[in-house]
Amino acid sequence: MSSAPLLSYRAVVAGYAGPVVGPVSFDLVEGDVLGLVGPNGCGKSTLVGALTGASRLFSGEVARRPGVSIAYQRQRPVRETDVPLRADELLRLTGADGVEPPEPLRALLHTRVDRLSGGQFQLLTVWACLGGAAEVVVLDEPTNNMDPGAIDALADLLHASRGDRGVLVVTHDARFLERVSAHVLEVGP
Amino acid sequence: MNAALVFDPLFRVPFANGLLLALVLPLLGAYVRLRNEWLAALGLAQVTAAGGVTAILLGIHPLAGALGAAVLAAGIKGRTERSGNDVYAVLLFFGWSAALLGAANSVRGEELSHALLEGQLYFTTWANLGGAIALVALVAAAGPWLSKKLLLEHFFPDHLSANRQSPWRLHLAFDLLVAFSVALATESIGVMATFCLVFFPPWVAFRIASSWQRALVHSAGLAVTAYLVAFALAIAFDQPFGPVLVGTLVLSGLVRLPVPRHR
């Protein structure tokens, strides 16, 4: 196991036309669930957007361990109204089809994703990220649209997350992060 | 009516050419529809028609002009780095204008323009069939890789960029494949029949299929069935092939009507 963090933010200032958030520093290491928490609009999603280029990096550095792959679930997953992709086909895209899915998803594997409820689809896309092989998983507001049962399932998934992986959770729900024993980093503008 | 003509050896090459196109175009159409770029086929078909007419004006083979125009259009679309139909709408209007202006200023251009509009499958040659065979081979070789990447990029749009992979190459590869297909098909079956084969079968299949794999099977099956019916009807009743195929495909769309949208 390498001693370098899987992902490292060093004095990152990110934004769009101008800086929105930062400077922020943190390390994500194996076995860690790190929660970025803060009120709506404080720049949490902007901060993780620096990882994909969705937001602009004004200063600082986003470093990742060489060879590390990232699974990224965006705040509003792409939801189609007339695309005949089945749940198990979606899981196959990220390599999450080789592991038994959480119980609430098992009966839905042969259902078209456009026929799932918002919460079911949200849990499916989270599992598509967590069930794959990526060493870093970024979940942006994963509890959106979820009912209490689905949130319980998500909390179980994060508790059971692999020890060789780091999970970065962006949420405004501090109580959820407490449930999953995450390290918490408060983000402010 | 002369049904015996359907089995005339004279029509074997055109039949095989059209059959391969009817198999491949709807498969590509499924991914075009996934990317909400269903206008792609019509825009590219018009541009390739303009390329064919321009080639005649320049004294070169129309197929070469059509392919060149299609590749150029795909490149321009790639440079804009935009998905959706607006770029294809611009290409459609430009292609329509250029094709008709070119046709108006050349006797042969006018002939070709009419042929591209109606489709001239029965006059296609081994060169067209060779292109269709190459297209099938290309889709068979690159299809599984492209399929996974396009679906992954569609449902997890941050996946590639988070892993420092540019989606630009993927988009360009797909756009070029579609452009190549549409150029070949426009030369063989005309603008509207090409557009219809890309658009219509996936439009039906997306509503009725229970999975992506089945949607591909339904798309290809519907298109091939409509092609076989249209080929026989057009020859037997001495009708232009393109309009008969489009009419057959549109009638097949009735299959979609009883199935409601679920959300």
Task: Give the biggest beta sheet of chain B.
Answer: none
Query: Strand content of the residues of chain A, in percent?
Result: 25-35%
Choose one word for the global shape of chain A.
Answer: globular
| Strand segment tally of chain A | 8
Helix proportion of chain A? 25-40%
How would you portray this structure in words?
The complex is a heterodimer of chains A (189) and B (263). Chain A starts with 6 loop residues before the first strand and ends with a strand. In chain A, 25% of the residues lie in helices and 28% in strands. In chain A, helix 2 (87-93) runs parallel beside helix 4 and helix 4 packs parallel to helix 5. Chain A is an alpha/beta fold and 189 residues long. Chain A has a domain at 30-42 and 68-183: P-loop containing nucleotide triphosphate hydrolases (Rossmann fold, 3-Layer(aba) Sandwich). The longest helix of chain A has 13 residues, at 118-130. In chain A, the strands form 2 sheets. In chain A, strands 5-6-7-3-8 form a 5-stranded parallel β-sheet. A 3-stranded antiparallel β-sheet of chain A has the order 2-1-4. Chain A has helices at 44-49, 87-93, 103-106, 118-130, 148-159, 174-179, and strands spanning 7-15, 19-28, 33-37, 56-64, 70-73, 136-140, 166-171, 183-186. The mean pLDDT of chain A is 84. With 263 residues, chain B is mostly helical. Chain B has one domain: ABC transporter involved in vitamin B12 uptake, BtuC. Chain B contains 11 helices and no strands. The radius of gyration of chain B is 18 Å and the shape is globular. The chains are: A alpha/beta (189), B mainly alpha (263). Chains A and B meet through strand 5, helix 2 and helix 4 of A and helix 6, helix 7, helix 9 and helix 10 of B.
